[in-house]
């Protein structure tokens, strides 16, 4: 079990991340506002996905919006911790907008692929991965961010599918979106099992 409350993200050390952090700290923006902005990007991404089957270029817009959502998820924590702007309600804003953003994007991906049920099932499984992680933390075991289908992995799969979809549209094929949905669903279920078993093992080891 990971003994930190922060997701391990290599991008925190990137030069562009540090530059963006300096710019944000020169403003009065709060981590909670950045968290809410991530939902805005996710909502726009969901709209783009739903409209994309008739306008394939919107798949590219969706891919960009997914990444902007992730940038917000990265920067809210940096502004809170490195910038010293954490608030008492920060833990709520750290979790709830993520669940909304995940659900919007994964459900919309299902509708874009013509497999709505897969989108809803994937969104539920994704939410359960977070529920199990937070449950472990509530039991005093820390946050377990392991995959194979943690948030960053889900968004990477979705981004790749969105980049492939316009190419497939040219060839009148549509395999990428459905494949991404299955990978997200199966991977999220596997992640739930792995995290739950890890929690159970740690509880069993308690004196």
From TrEMBL:
Name of the featured protein: Phosphatidylglycerophosphate synthase
GO biological process: phospholipid biosynthetic process
Transmembrane domains' residue ranges: 20-50, 120-143, 155-173, 179-203
Keywords assigned: Membrane, Transmembrane, Transmembrane helix
Molecular function GO labels: phosphotransferase activity, for other substituted phosphate groups
Source organism per UniProt: Enterovirga rhinocerotis
Signal sequence range: none
A GO term from the CC aspect: membrane
Keyword Magnesium carried by entry: no
Coiled coil (residue ranges): none
Entry annotated with the keyword Transmembrane helix: yes
């Amino acid at each position: 079990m990971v003994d930190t409350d922060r997701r391990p993200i290599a991008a925190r050390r990137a030069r562009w991340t540090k530059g963006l952090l300096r710019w944000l700290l020169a403003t009065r923006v709060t981590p909670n506002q950045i968290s809410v902005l991530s939902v805005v990007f996710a909502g726009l991404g969901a709209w783009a996905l739903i409209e994309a089957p008739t306008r394939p270029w919107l798949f590219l817009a969706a891919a960009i919006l997914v990444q902007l959502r992730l940038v917000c998820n990265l920067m809210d924590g940096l502004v809170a911790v490195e910038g010293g702007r954490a608030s008492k309600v920060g833990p709520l804003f750290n979790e709830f907008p993520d669940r909304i953003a995940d659900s919007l994007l994964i459900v919309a991906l299902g509708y874009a692929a013509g497999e709505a049920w897969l989108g809803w099932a994937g969104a539920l499984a994704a939410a359960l991965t977070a529920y199990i992680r937070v449950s472990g933390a509530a039991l005093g075991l820390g946050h377990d961010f392991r995959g194979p289908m943690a948030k960053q992995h889900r968004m990477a799969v979705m981004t790749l599918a969105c980049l492939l979809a316009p190419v497939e549209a040219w060839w009148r094929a549509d395999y990428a979106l459905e494949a991404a949905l299955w990978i997200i669903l199966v991977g999220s279920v596997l992640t739930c099992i792995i995290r739950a078993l890890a929690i159970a093992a740690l509880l069993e080891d308690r004196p």
